[in-house]
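Review session, final week

We close the course with one last complete record, chosen because it touches almost every idea we covered. It is Periplasmic binding protein domain-containing protein, a protein from Parafrankia colletiae with 337 residues. Go through it on your own first, then we will talk.
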Amino acid sequence: MAPTADSAYKDPGPAVTGVSSLAGKTVWYIPLSSQITTTQLVQTSLAEALGTAHIDVHACSGDANPSTIAGCITSAINGKAAGVVFDSIVAGFVAEGIRQLKAAHIPVVIANEPNPDGDSPGDASLAYVPGNPMQALQVLAQWIAEDSHGKAAVLINEVTDAPPPIAYVQNGFIPALKSACSSCTVTVNKIQSANYSLIPSSTSAALISNPTTDYVVSEFDAFAAPTQQGVQQTGKLNAVKGASAGGLLAQLQTLKSGTFLRADVGTNFAYQGWAMADQLLRLLTGAAPITYQVPLRLFTAANIGSLDLTNQAQISGDWYGSTAYKQMFTRLWGLGN
């Protein structure tokens, strides 16, 4: 399981040599969409991390459009990118683009998507920093088991846009809940990004069909608001406890208000940006890719009151405690003590 905010930072792998020789190069960051809050947070920390090595980051939003993503890849190749980082884009979705990048000897890092070949961090030309969405949902399941004293009836909105989010629920959340709470029950309500406007009615219908539900889970913070709307439509806003994963500002503000959300498991996206930079630097210097454990933090009423719930704090990663990982990475890169 990923470390919590209070864990000491340990070197994720061996030191990387030759980083200083990369100064002046440009890396292309291609997220699924620059409108996604998490990609905005990651881009900021990625640019900060690579900036310590005097490497520029050029962002090219995929706009959730295959043609646009393909155009970004072509531009990266024509612009002689040193490396490319894809964020929230499945490898199979850009298979031809990856082939072209490999042919141009441009290494690739894919973030926030699992390696389809298993737990391997990748190889010399294509590596992964998958994040920790499954672990976040497992932590959420454990919280529900404890908070309900082993008697929860859970409704979870499972995102069916692609195989990974389905697996996060089916292979992560549900087994974790059953392991911690054999008497708990789970109902899965399937939702899609393409039908975002239908999520409130879908959630309310699922609640009506399962009247004993006392916990409602949104798989990701991006779907927490319409999930809450669906609960509100049934008049059960004060009768059920909401939970989500992501740890984004809007949801933590809702949690602090005491309305619907009672728990949210956040990912330290600032750390993740530095981990993505580290993985790419390893490929660029001929080192083997490694596996990272991005820190998580469970936010509840017990700790939300101490947080500075501002966008600045969200960007900095202050909610997760020490930022000593920055010094850790720069030391590994031979750029600091």
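Two points worth writing down before the exam:
The chain has two domains: 19-130+269-294+321-332, 133-246.
The longest helix spans residues 163-180.
Good luck, everyone.
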